[in-house]
Amino acid sequence: MRPSRLAVLLLICLTATGCMRRGPRYYAPAQPGPMYSQPIAAPQTVYAQPQVYAQPAPVYARPAPQPTPAYTQSVPVQAAPPPEPPPVMVAPANPSYMPTFAPPPPVGGGYEPVYALDSGDRLRIQVFGQEGLTNSYTVDAAGNVNLSLIGPVPARGYTTKDLAGAIADRLRNGFIREPSVTVEVEAYRPFFILGEVTAPGQYPYVANMTVETAVAIAGGFGPRAKKTGVQLTRVQNGATMRSVVPMNFPLKPGDTLSIAERWF
Hints:
By secondary structure, this protein is an alpha+beta fold. The protein has helices at 5-17, 34-48, 51-54, 58-61, 160-172, 211-217, and strands spanning 122-127, 135-138, 144-147, 151-154, 181-187, 191-195, 201-203, 230-236, 239-245, 256-259.
């Protein structure tokens, strides 16, 4: 309910005349206690929750980047070197030196050594179109084969292919314009086996022969034979080589085997 204008005017008049005076104001005395304990707790609220300083910035919480290990770098791969060929045996300076022969090739594969001709080999030499030259020839003690038309031709240390080429060169020099020559080994020179075997002596060589095969051809080991190793003597490149070889070592024509006697 809004006051009337008469009531408002009456109130203004009373105020102006001093009828309505303000009474004395009374203030409550300052009392210690909860009133003063509350302002003290207020600053603690400000410093007790320092949201900005209590939590570290995310940038410092990240782990430092790890360096890339050196071994992860790509390294160029080098190709393996090709296998070295078997060493070539040379004549030792000291006659008492005992060289070791190369190990035999693996069974069922590996390289096949090239056969070199020498004294005692019987060859079948065929010259196409020349029946008088086609015949069997034996390499003599000097290492030559003697053909009726061209005379002696060196054969010691040659392969059958090399000897065929040498004969063709002789025939081409004033005898036949385009000779065609083939050479085959008809019979190999023999090998020798000595010592503690049943029948030591000289035997014809057989292709792909080993020490064990040679002992079997000679009748087997004797009762006091040493079976752990056999001494082999071989003439190679004009030098005599001696070594102890195992039972599966391959033999060549002209080799000499010595079977030692065991002491007990």
